TrEMBL record:
Start and end residues of each DC-UbP/UBTD2 N-terminal domain: 15-113
InterPro entries: DC-UbP/UBTD2_N (IPR032752), DC-UbP/UBTD2_N_sf (IPR038169), UBTD1/2 (IPR039869)
Residues annotated as signal peptide: none
Protein name listed in UniProt: DC-UbP/UBTD2 N-terminal domain-containing protein
Biased composition (Basic residues): 14-23
One Pfam family from the record: UBD
Region (Disordered): 1-23
């Protein structure tokens, strides 16, 4: 019958646990300053890709936080995690949010300024 009063199987939307992104390399060696500039440019323009500004703000906070706090931010904002590394997420209305690798972690070939 319907989902009312039935077991957790019906309509269960289990939240994926957020994990650290896999190691990756940028196409060329970049400095921490260049990486920060790339991240700032992305977050400044992200709301123009669609979706809600509040969700973009929560995703930024989650991307910049440690992994335990990241999970709490994602859960409290109602973000549906498609990819465990946060590269693809959805809000409760179904809007898609794609995050590039460089906002989620540092590349292996980064150098000091």
């Amino acid at each position: 019958m319907g989902c009312v009063g039935s077991s957790a199987k019906c309509g269960d939307r289990r939240q994926k646990k957020v994990r650290r992104p896999k190691p990756w390399k940028h196409t060329e060696v970049i400095t921490k300053g260049q990486l920060k500039q790339m991240r700032d440019e992305f977050w400044d323009t992200a709301p123009h890709y669609g979706g809600q500004k509040e969700i973009w703000d929560a995703l930024r906070a989650a991307a910049e936080a440690d992994i335990h706090l990241t999970q709490a931010i994602v859960d409290s904002a109602g973000i549906i995690v498609q990819s465990e590394d946060l590269s693809t997420c959805y809000d409760e209305r179904g809007a898609k949010y794609d995050l590039p690798k460089y906002v989620l972690s540092e590349p292996m070939n980064i150098k000091e300024d």
